[in-house]
Design the sequence.
């Protein structure tokens, strides 16, 4: 195929074509090389259409679900610059990167911006025909710790850029955003290669106002293979999806440590513009990858008019592009596509980004860098990106000193720590990173870090945005040299320091802080409750020792809303922090009368903040947990953004999630969901068993209610998309519950982690018995399960609001028909099942291999 450092294809690759400089008191230089859109005059003079890129992404996401595709195939753009941001760019003569704090795509990016004298910003327009991004996953690599994408550890890596001056049918005014994407699942060593191409030409034509990548835009494609696994794509259907994608699943495990180079080449094939995507990966043990896995050719030429130069990739520091985003080159980490966020638990990696220079016949490192991207909507939190060079100046590094990836002298260093958006080399930041170790007792505390923008030694920081990180991810956090304010917080404990005072931390060498928190129940629950081992639960409990007859009793009094740094969400309304997160615990633990976990949301930093409520109720996550009882909560709720169509198969917009967890009890709770209520699903592995754990849980006596429809001016999930319970595991017992959500319950026909088809078996009723009879769930002798959810004399199955629907009057939300007397009740829907999977997987029923043989009948009680 090729070797790193050489062009992938034998095409005419040229170097930098155009430059422009704006110095202190200077003027915009003449741009004589024909860079499309370069120069301040190219920005729209009038206010832009509202959120062009956001609308483009929303439309494409909806089309992706309509085509029965997973969200992992689509990497959406971030929202467009606002009218105020565009006006600021016009006034200053240069763009401003659009992310202002976490969550953000973290990595290295070149915006055509560099640091001038006296803190000025110098914009430049540069072009190239080839980009390469190098990622060296050292030692333990990078681990995410989220339950998004229905897997606990997925994240993405993206090489992104905008190809300008692309010719379509003889018109060379088009721009296309091309993405070389790698999705990685460390726990299962699973890797997927994905490409996306989007039309960034803007809503320029009345016939194409949404920027669709039309079917006649692409002329041909060539897909590659890795061993017997070959890429697949949607070539020919781009207009239906609004973008192009291809995907290739690596057919063998890829395990840390590994080194990877990602390539995107602007090509010229038979006189037509095109782009090729490739990945070169080597790992410490196991098989390597060297694959050009997708080449796409644009429909460029009219008869007898072949092109002689391919379209360049442009980094333009002067002005935003036609969809009001930055034209930049970026190598970033983000969530596993679909606009998702990944919370990084640990990180040890280095990054380099280079562009091809034809005059020198080699790749050069980008001349300046920022530590966050500007085009993509996928984000991360908990990832510090600093920089180093081969001289090792600036203090401690989390990696060995020497040449960076790709042999460049400057490179990004990735470690665990706060997401502080800043410049890197050539953009004002001092070199290096310094470790800060927080020895906190109890260990479940939260560290809140805020950079000091008033200090001259951190003038490179763009925004003083507080960022919270759990001490459970490890006591050591890495920071760029500078001055920070720090606060240590934990529910039922005093803050350190108490009140508005903050610890001022000057980072010019490694630091160690020893902090003992003071127990104070009057503080109540004001931080999330997280525990990653049995020993950590005691610090979150008022009593107990974790045994069956003396369980831990978790904190449950909340007196104020959480601070906004706990209510973070990204631009696609993916929330960052759950209110409860238990991982790998087995001690008996009760959360009785749970607090609301209400947090203020960060309305000022993210779109669509003005269209979301000012507070939200945070999720509950349980990952590989047993012995947990969630009972008698009066209102488990929380909203999710309108970017989530009904898709329980890929994203998880549920208030409570149990993953790979067994022998737990969910009893007596009221779910007042503003989205979808409870998800319980088994574990899995890409190269192992489809179902490796989870199940044998009891769900008893809960009321699953849907809140009323959100106001039309709020960008929230709609009422019709509400679901009470979704199951994807075996052996659960679900009885004596009240289901009054639009779709009552759903059993998944596949393993959510691996996507392998699988039909589960669960029990939806017990043999009817008197309501006064006291049942108990195994392992929970202290919680009596007695009484009828419907107020009758019998305890048996569940109440289902749409039991009694007929062909003449079906469930209006999913078409379910469940006449009285026809048993078992199984939410026999007629629409969504076929919509997603079709009849080849299973018949049109939501509850199969069982069903409720003893449902409560209440003919006068319906949602309407």
Sequence:
């Amino acid at each position: 195929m090729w070797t790193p450092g050489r062009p992938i294809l034998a095409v005419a690759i040229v170097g930098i074509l155009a430059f422009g400089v704006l110095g202190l008191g200077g003027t915009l230089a003449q741009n004589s090389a024909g860079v499309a859109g370069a120069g301040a005059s190219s920005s729209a003079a009038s206010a832009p259409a509202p959120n062009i890129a956001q609308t483009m992404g929303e439309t494409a996401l909806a089309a992706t679900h309509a085509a029965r595709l997973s969200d992992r195939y689509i990497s959406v753009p971030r929202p467009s610059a606002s009218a105020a941001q565009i006006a600021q760019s016009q006034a200053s003569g240069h763009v401003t990167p659009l992310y202002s704090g976490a969550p953000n795509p973290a990595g290295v990016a070149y915006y055509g911006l560099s640091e001038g004298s006296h803190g000025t910003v110098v914009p430049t327009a540069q072009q190239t025909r080839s980009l390469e991004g190098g990622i060296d996953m050292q030692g333990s690599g990078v681990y995410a710790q989220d339950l998004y994408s229905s897997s606990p550890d997925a994240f993405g890596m993206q090489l992104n850029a905008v190809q300008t001056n692309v010719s379509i049918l003889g018109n060379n005014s088009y721009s296309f955003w091309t993405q070389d994407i790698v999705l990685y699942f460390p726990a299962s060593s699973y890797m997927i290669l994905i490409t996306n191409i989007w039309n960034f030409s803007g809503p320029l034509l009345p016939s194409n106002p949404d920027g669709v990548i039309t079917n006649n835009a692409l002329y041909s494609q060539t897909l590659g293979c890795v061993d017997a696994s070959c890429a697949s794509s949607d070539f020919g259907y781009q207009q239906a999806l609004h973008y192009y994608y291809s995907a290739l699943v690596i057919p063998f495990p890829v395990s840390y440590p590994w080194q990877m180079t990602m390539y995107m080449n602007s090509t010229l094939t038979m006189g037509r513009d095109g782009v090729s995507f490739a990945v070169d990966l080597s790992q410490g043990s196991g098989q390597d990858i060297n694959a050009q896995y997708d080449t796409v050719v644009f429909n460029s030429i009219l008869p007898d008019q072949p092109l002689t130069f391919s379209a360049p990739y442009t980094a333009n520091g002067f002005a935003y592009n036609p969809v009001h985003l930055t034209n930049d080159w970026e190598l970033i980490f983000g969530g596993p596509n679909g606009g998702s966020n990944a919370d990084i638990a640990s990180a040890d990696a280095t990054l380099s980004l280079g562009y091809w220079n034809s005059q020198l016949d080699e790749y050069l490192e980008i001349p300046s860098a920022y530590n966050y991207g500007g085009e993509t909507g996928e984000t991360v939190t908990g990832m510090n990106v600093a920089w180093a060079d081969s001289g090792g100046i600036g203090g401690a590094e989390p990696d060995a000193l020497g040449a960076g990836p790709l042999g460049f002298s400057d490179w990004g260093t990735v470690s665990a720590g706060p997401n502080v958006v800043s410049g890197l080399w050539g953009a004002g930041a001092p070199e290096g990173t310094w470790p800060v170790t927080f020895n906190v007792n109890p260990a479940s505390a939260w560290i809140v870090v805020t950079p000091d923008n008033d200090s001259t030694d951190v003038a490179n920081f763009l925004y003083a945005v507080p960022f919270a990180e759990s001490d459970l991810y490890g006591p050591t956090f890495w920071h760029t040299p500078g001055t920070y304010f720090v606060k240590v917080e934990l529910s039922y404990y005093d803050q350190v320091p108490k009140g508005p005072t903050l610890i001022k931390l000057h980072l010019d060498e490694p630091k160690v802080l020893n902090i003992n928190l003071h127990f104070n129940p009057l503080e109540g629950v004001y931080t999330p409750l997280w525990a990653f081992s049995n020993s950590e639960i005691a610090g979150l409990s008022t009593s107990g020792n974790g045994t069956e007859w003396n369980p831990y009793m978790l904190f449950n009094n909340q007196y104020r809303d959480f601070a906004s740094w706990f209510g973070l969400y990204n631009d696609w309304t993916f929330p960052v922090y759950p209110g409860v997160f238990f991982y790998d615990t087995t001690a008996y633990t009760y959360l009785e009368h749970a607090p609301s976990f209400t947090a203020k949301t960060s309305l000022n930093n993210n779109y669509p903040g003005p269209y979301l409520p000012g507070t939200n109720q945070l999720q509950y996550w349980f990952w590989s947990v047993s012995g947990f009882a969630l009972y008698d909560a009066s209102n488990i709720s929380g909203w999710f953004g309108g970017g989530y169509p009904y898709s329980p198969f890929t994203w998880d917009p549920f208030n409570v999630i149990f993953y790979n967890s067994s022998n737990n009890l969910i009893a007596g709770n009221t779910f007042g969901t503003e989205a979808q209520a409870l998800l319980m699903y088994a574990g899995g592995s890409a190269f192992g068993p489809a179902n490796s754990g989870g199940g044998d849980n009891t769900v008893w006596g809960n009321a699953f209610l849907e809140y009323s429809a959100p106001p039309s001016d709020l960008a929230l999930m709609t009422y019709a998309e509400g679901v009470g319970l979704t199951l994807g595991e075996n052996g659960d017992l679900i009885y004596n519950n009240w289901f009054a959500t639009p779709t009552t319950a759903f059993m998944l026909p596949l393993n959510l982690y691996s996507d392998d088809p699988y039909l589960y078996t669960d029990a939806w009723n017990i043999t009817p018995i008197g309501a006064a009879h006291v049942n108990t769930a195994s392992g929970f002798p202290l919680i009596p399960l007695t009484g009828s959810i419907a107020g009758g004399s019998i305890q048996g199955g569940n109440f289902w609001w749409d039991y009694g629907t007929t062909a003449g009057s079906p469930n209006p939300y999913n078409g379910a028909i469940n006449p009285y007397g026809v048993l078992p009740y199984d939410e026999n829907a007629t629409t969504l099942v076929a919509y997603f999977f079709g009849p080849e997987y299973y018949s049109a029923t939501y509850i199969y291999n069982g069903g409720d043989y003893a449902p409560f009948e209440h003919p006068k009680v319906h949602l309407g």
The first strand starts at residue 106 and ends at 110. The chain has four helices and 53 strands.
